[in-house]
Amino acid sequence: MSRKPPTRIQQRNSEAILEAALDVFSQQGFRGATLDQIAEGAGLSKPNLLYYFPSKEAIHLALISRLLKVWLDPLRDLDPQGDPVAEVKTYARRKLDLSRDFPRESRLFANEILQGAPRMIGAIEGELRDLVAEKAAVLQGWMNEGRLAPVHPVHLIFSIWALTQHYADFDVQVRAVLGPDHDPFAEAGEFIEIALSRLLEPRG
Q1: Share of the chain above pLDDT 90, in %
Q2: Please, what CATH class does the domain formed by 1-54 belong to?
Q3: What positions does the DNA-binding region cover (predicted)?
Q4: What is the CATH T-level fold of the domain 64-200, as seen in this structure?
């Protein structure tokens, strides 16, 4: 028997729970977060919350699943038919935009990784690793053709992650060091594009 689609109120409450959970998990980590904190943030009672999600683990899994798709889309879009340097710089720019626009999601992901990724190791060892291998092969192909300077393709992807996600995960430190008169994301975008151009433009 097919399930009835959720009502507008049910959809609204589910989104309120996930929004509140994102705040709590990104600030407290999985272990520090409680259902009471999430229910309070969502403006619901704890029994009402449990009607929508049976456990803290279920809420966290829903957030991680949604996040992983958003996080991987820019890498999926790396076009083998495009200009190699432009494609890599576009990927880095999109990753930086995600850090600017979704800082809580970035910290949620970082917290999960720092805990050993117990709730998403399957996705990391499966979907994520497969996608990185696929795009690393594209990068290596461009290098073999002399269209990119030769560097380790997987570590290039790691470096882009580090360069971009730093600005979400360490936002307080970045803004404290730069001061109030700087836009860290605009300046970071310019720096990353220059750095990638100098690293990847074919020599000679």
Answers
A1: 73
A2: mainly alpha
A3: 34-53
A4: Tetracycline Repressor; domain 2 (1.10.357)
CA distance 94 to 142: 21
Average pLDDT over residues 74-89: 97
**Per-residue pLDDT tens for 18-73?**
999 999 998 888 889 999 999 999 999 999 999 999 999 999 989 888 888 888 99
The number of CA neighbours under 13 Å toward the Cβ of 87 is: 18
Amino acid at residue number 182:
H
Residue pair 100/185 in contact (Cβ under 8 Å)? The answer is yes
HEC per residue, the chain? CCCCCCCHHHHHHHHHHHHHHHHHHHHHHHHHCCHHHHHHHHCCCHHHHHHHCCCHHHHHHHHHHHHHHHHHHHHHCCCCCCCHHHHHHHHHHHHHHHHHHCHHHHHHHHHHHHCCCCCCHHHHHHHHHHHHHHHHHHHHHHHHCCCCCCCCHHHHHHHHHHHHHHHHHCHHHHHHHHCCCCCHHHHHHHHHHHHHHHHHCCCC
